[in-house]
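Lay summary. Proteins are chains of building blocks that fold into shapes, and those shapes determine what they do. In this project we predict the shape from the chain. Here is one chain we studied, written as its sequence of building blocks.
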Amino acid sequence: MQGRKTTSTHSPSVVELNLPATLRGFTLIEILVTLVIISIVLGLAMLKINVDNIDSRLKQETGRMARKMELADQQAIFQSQDLGMLILEDNYAFYLLQKDKWMPVDDNLLKQRSFDKDIEITAVIEGDEVQLETSAPTKPVPQIIFSSAGEWTSFEVLFKQKDKNDITYILSNIETGQLEITREANEY
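And here is the predicted shape, written in a compact code that computers can read:
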């Protein structure tokens, strides 16, 4: 038989194959190295997906707040009533000024909105950083006012992932008086 060789030094059940190099399989080391490389690539891909996920959530939450603020401004003008927005550590809500008292807005579109638990908010109102409360006070006073004349309080609201400063979205009306959303990223 060509290709098979039995030797008398081994037990009769041992058969050595002298196959050409193109017909041999992979060694255990080659398979392990390939698996390690695949694992590293998949791990990096998962990190990228996680970063993109928080980036899209921050962008979405910033855009949502901007649209609600624009709606509050329009309602203040069209209804000739002052509206306000109170930003807390984990949510924000809109209020209506009635007889010198701020009352929660009874509008489904402007209902209280909670932030995701891994999003951190910083508010800068008229140039000063505001310490955000954990819950609404008994007599709320909004930080941002939408007047019936169409004027707004000057502000910046920063959205970022808690415990990380990689990506920050900034919602602001400081530069132009119009709402602007900017993205800042610290690439490492």
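What the prediction tells us: Residues 51 and 167 are 9 Å apart (CA to CA).
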